[in-house]
Amino acid sequence: MVEVNYRQVPLAHLGLASKIEDSLGDAGVGMSDRGFRAILNLRVDLAKQAGARESFEKAMGFTLPETPNTANGKDGTEALWLGPNEWQVVVDDNAPDAGTRWLQTVRQGMRGHFCAVVDVSNAQAIIGMTGPMAREVLERAVPLDMHPGAFKPGEVKQTVFGRHCGVIMHLRDESPVFDLYVRRSFAEYVWSYTRDCARGAQTDTAVLAG
Amino acid sequence: MLLIPCPYCGARAENEFGYGGEAHKVRPETPENLSDGQWADYVFMQKNTKGTYHERWVHSQGCRRWFNVIRDTLTNEIQAVYEMGETPPEVDTKTYL
Amino acid sequence: MAQRYRLSKGGRIDRDRLIDFTYDGRKLQGYQGDTLASALIANGRHLVGRSFKYHRPRGFLAAGAEEPNALMQIGTGARTVADVKATQVELYQGLTASPVNAWPSVKYDLGAVNQAFSKLFPSGFYYKTFMWPHSAWHFYERVIRSAAGLGKAPDKPDPDFYDKRYAHADVLVAGAGPAGLAAALAAGRSGARVILVDEQPETGGSLLASRDEIDGKPGTSWAEQAVAELRAMDNVRILTRTIAFGYYDHNWIALLESLTDHLAEKPDDVPRQRFWKVRAKQVVLATGAIERPLVFRDNDRPGIMLANAAQSYVNRWAVKPGETAVLFANNDGAYQAALDMKAAGIQIAAAVDLRQDPSGPRTEAARAAGIDILAGHAITETQGGHRVNRIKVAPMSEDGKQLAGSGQTLECDLVAMSGGWNPTVHLHSQSRGKLRFDSDIASFVPDFAVQAERSAGACNGTFGLAAVLAEGETAGRAAAEAAGFSPAAANGHYKAASDGFTPARWLWLTPSTKPVGHGGKHFVDFQNDVTAADLHLALREGYTSVEHVKRYTTTGMGTDQGKTSNVNALGIVSEYRELPIEELGVTTFRPPYTPVTFGAWGGRDVEEFFDPTRKTPMHSWHERAGAAFEDVGLWKRPWYYPKAGETMHDAVQRESKAARESLGVLDATTLGRIDIQGPDSGEFLNRIYTNGWKTLKPGFCRYGLMLGEDGMVRDDGVTACLGENHYLMHTTTGGAADVLAHLEEYLQTEWPELQVYLTTVTEQYATAAIAGPNARKLLAELTGDIDVSPEAFPFMTFREGHVAGVWARVSRISFSGELSFEINVEAHNGLHMWQTIIAAGEKYAITPYGTETMHVLRAEKGFIIVGQETDGTVTPMDLGMEKLCSTKKEFVGRRSLTRPDMLDPNRKQLVGLLPDNPKDILEEGAQLVETVRPEPPMAMVGHVSSSYMSPTLGRAFALALIKGGQHKHGQKVYAPMTGDKTIACTITSPVFFDPEGERLRG
């Protein structure tokens, strides 16, 4: 049977596509829906599973980041450190079967090691955030120190967003560009909450392309 | 709000963590060999020390790892953190009346 | 005449900006830069309130946050605020204010009759009088509250919004007076991230009210220069109109910033207030000091104020708090107030000095300026109704305990008093820092810090401008260094006056012509109307500890928190008990330092953000279908789908019938899902669940019951075996996060040897449960690659294939008791699947049903819901599920099941209930009795846990937990309801429908 693409991103019902601006304008914060990506959760104890590092590198072309709170990657494929034996592998591949395919790739590559690779591509929404006020606005939602000296490009931090909603924050560059990964059922909460934080910071938000 | 040094992620605000009570309470291997009193002691009783206390926390909104904390429960000073299974480090034991 | 008491020049006010305001119904004027207090004084208004208990006329005691008397109701309508100190309100065009504690008006206050009966209001009065009869308290309370006039709350929703944010700093400096500015400069220059906060609209602190010089220029100019330098630093954030009100664990400091309270027009895009939650590596407290009143007879008349307040009104706001003043002091520093008042044209009738031999630089300057000093004298009496107009003074004996000789009368309309200074140690004390009594200044000063903080300047007991600046600078440098920065060498010494406020003489209680309590009142706590006699009474009645004295007399309580009263109260207690103050200890300082609005505490986490709401991929469809939603955990779940004109009851009856007779569909996306893999997964499940798992083969599902170690049911759900050593566990909707945490806890802390990994996949899937006799037919139409025949797809198995054109995992499980399939697809495809099912099901009149119908259907089958039939005190045996508890293996909670109280046959057990009248729907939570009495108490034997009207059964039914219920089937119980109604019921089995399960297996 041919798989038909009926997919909807978690924020689909907000109709963001029609609200996209070309640039930030006067807005202090730009927000975007990053759309579909392949996302895998990987659990493996690199210290105990001899050769697992190499297996991953062979399969994906880069090494798993072992420094806490960092990411590593190559060509649109990256791994975010989530814990001492846990990573989130993200591939910028929006094909409907991307999650399944990359799951197979990583599973195959890690065969023989005690590990768990799970497809969670549908479980998260990815919200992009940028703009000169992005850090100030986020300091209203998360208890982390968002100062450029404290949250640097390439870093990944998990924390609590608003009231008891988990978030994975990945700072891609110093401009700043953030990727926020939140569980899909919380996506609208995070989106609206951020806009309210911007109001509290006395700035506007603009919807930007993913 | 406490600032808790997660042994994996670094110092983070308390609202990222969950509390797990007294540390180093080992679950009995064969509970059926315990008297009712001994079992109740394991399930329900905690030392709840005023002063230096070994306790467990979990970084629930972070790396999701459990770890041990030595905390002075009167002042909230965190004297040490260490991983599950590790031997507790030596600290200055604080006691109060 | 308008602003008759305004000085012709000086002050930090803008004379070009005249401001109209209304006070107690009168239209008055002030200037931009005024506080409500200074503007009232400019207009000669000193009577600004009535006291709390006796309704005595009261005026301004202070000029800042410590003001206990001038409590105002500010504004009207939705924005009205009660109990605001007039000294903290910035004047704005159109401001309206009235005193909170007077009725009908401050001049003709009916409550003043209380004064005549003041003997009836001793300490502990409320405790003694209103505690009997007990039941009358609610009546007394209402009368007391209206008489005490605590202001009015707005009766409309708050029109403003509030911002709340976290912030991080290397160095937080609280207070932007001379010490705070010097500290911020030193820390800021080192590159440290500094947050400098001050409650005032402008920085400068005490410098704003003084004529002292720094480095040869006015202190205010120095402050302006310092702030300009700080503003130029990227690493420094200056917050004015911001008060650091709470100091919590691990250097967590709460600030309240006011953004629009001082504005006439409230912009709708600016939050009214901003609540800051600051984590600071280091803190410098530079919070200054509060002047201490003197405790003398009738020291509360309007026109009797702190010397520093009088000085501030003159210097900072250019208003005259009186025409003829008497200084009443025990220290040298207070004479500067007299000098400043004199310079402003206020006549100084005399300086009454408690010291036998007044000396010191300011005293000498006053003497040189021709001020008449009455050494060793006390004010023994004050007169004046709405304003002091006369005082009597007399010499004292050498020990200051009594009067020695006759006195004289002085005419005056202002008494400026100074009993010394109390360092503002509130934040230090809140941080758990210890205090010690410093006998040089007769007050408490920080002893040692517990957290990473240091005090500088007056709050550290350091007085004298030069020393204050130097200490601020040192503290700022030390804080920056401790935070990891390297401050440059000191910038040289600040040149300023070096004298503090001593020499001084400490007399806690000023003698008068009659003993304390036998003539006039010696007020200690102005806000709570506590006198020296009240303290003595409490001590005589045996309340000797300071904490008890505080509570019994209420001294130091309320919004005031003892800012002006605490040390005087301690001094008086100490004298009475003949114990040194240091041995008495000091009462605890609690946050907040000044009141904080509920709006600020709530921040943005109100209304739509009160809690996060979680929505399924099908949510938009449910909304379009007009569903009513129910909160389950954080999820919004469709509760029922009313059609036009339908009540909830109608909708649920229709939905239940549809599922039993043809086809229903439920959004079951919200169930928790945990992926479990690894070689020890089966063993892990065996230990976690009560039943056995090792025999479960791939493709099969099993129901599991999870207990806590206490043996109580904690969660339940169906787990599928996806492959070898690979399982998918389903948890209850509300329990998902807790269950994952519970499992991780065991894996990480108890059984680290088990090779198992858990991954939450709750949100990876969207689930539609189709239920009803036509479920199989519909599924067959939607799939091409799953054989749905009963033989190929038996109950409690799952199949993977395609449904509605997308990948799906279909489980044949049933929570409704009907033939049912749960169709799981990837969440992105959830809405598509749902819409496809709805469209294809039309020919079966497919009916979407919500959680209420789900409850009816499952309850008819006697299926429990964890959290409804269980409440943390229910065991598997209580539910009749002992067969699910394996006897062949150990599992979490097993040992507890054999504890004696778990085996008690009289435990509450799950049963069914049928009301005798089939139309009586029991209330969930209703208590059940076996014997009905005319009125309570009645022995309760259980409670109703679930109750519904069933269209299938054609009657109401319920599930209940009843003591020994499993052996009481057929017996009667009664649910006494409000009114005279009692519902009689018969106990039955909890399974009402299809007990053999033919439908769900068919």
Report on the architecture of this protein.
The complex is a heterotrimer of chains A (210), B (97) and C (1002). Chain A is of the alpha+beta class. Chain A folds into two domains: 12-35 and 123-207, Gyrase A, domain 2, CATH 3.30.1360.120; 38-119, Alpha-Beta Plaits, CATH 3.30.70. Chain A has helices spanning 52-60, 98-109, 134-138, 187-200, and strands at 29-33, 38-44, 71-74, 77-83, 86-91, 115-119, 124-130, 156-161, 165-173, 177-183, 205-207. Chain A has a six-stranded mixed β-sheet with strand order 8-9-10-7-1-11, with helices on one face. A five-stranded antiparallel β-sheet of chain A has the order 3-4-5-2-6, with helices on one face. The radius of gyration of chain A is 18 Å and the shape is globular. In chain A, 51% of the residues are buried. The mean pLDDT of chain A is 96. With 97 residues, chain B is mainly β. Helix content of chain B is 9%, strand content 34%. Chain B has one helix at 36-44, and strands at residues 3-6, 10-13, 18-22, 52-58, 66-72, 78-83. Chain B is globular. The mean pLDDT of chain B is 96. Chain C has five domains: 14-148, 2Fe-2S iron-sulphur cluster binding domain, sarcosine oxidase, alpha subunit, N-terminal domain (Ubiquitin-like (UB roll), Roll); 162-289 and 423-482, FAD/NAD(P)-binding domain (3-Layer(bba) Sandwich), CATH 3.50.50.60; 293-353 and 361-414, FAD/NAD(P)-binding domain, CATH 3.50.50; 613-900, Probable tRNA modification gtpase trme, domain 1 (Gyrase A, domain 2, 2-Layer Sandwich); 904-1001, Aminomethyltransferase beta-barrel domains (Elongation Factor Tu (Ef-tu), domain 3), CATH 2.40.30.110. The mean pLDDT of chain C is 94. Chain C is an alpha+beta fold and 1002 residues long. In chain C, helix 5 (178-189) packs parallel to helix 6. Chain A binds chain B through residues 68-69, 82-84, 86, 143-144, 157-160, 164, 166, and chain B through 1, 8-10, 12-13, 15-16, 61-65.
